[in-house]
Write a structure and sequence with these properties.
Blueprint: H1 2-19, H2 23-30, H3 46-53, H4 55-80, H5 91-107, H6 120-130, H7 135-149, H8 152-174, H9 178-198, H10 200-208
Amino acid sequence: MMKAILIAAATILQAYLLGSVDTGILVSKFVYHDDVRNHGSGAAGMTNMLRTFGKKAAAMTATGDVLKGVLAVCIGRWLFHMLPADAGVSPYLVVYLAAIFAVLGHLYPLYFGFKGGKGVLVAAGAILAIQPVLLPFLAIIFLVCLIPTGMVSLGSVAMAALYPVLTIIYGSLQGYAAGDMLVCAIGSGFMSGMVIYMHRANIQRIREGKEYRFGKHNKK
């Protein structure tokens, strides 16, 4: 039991510290000698990097954010294998702990005054490491929302909202054990909730018809 607690703690710590390495802030500071959080939406994610510094900055940010989500989950999975086979711990518990705390680190980075991005790409990296089969479906949801509206935020919120649904459907089709299914449902629900919460201002602007749309000039 004590070993399981220590492994869970190590998973949480490494994921949060990795998540706190905010790619957007680092790229904006060391490549562009600025802080992206002083521009646009104030977030340190790919969308604000694209709007502020361009495609190259956005690509670097996206790559770093996805990779740290993948790495956090892979380290969590490696730590799980240190448990004895009869420990009775769901393998999804550790990977979802890693995913959730990597996203939390990105949202509230320890190294950058607890002000980061909105966590979409870090979550995507974590999903890539946990259930890569879901990513094409999430990408389709994102594009269905983005293409007609030009709103990245709408696509992000829709993906987040439907991620737990897809997780449960996939788990059912794969015949997950009840305990594993419960962990996956709760873990995916937490990830979804965090991303949606961080888009609450965007949701309000969407309702008011004021959200930024790529390719269109918004009224100030």
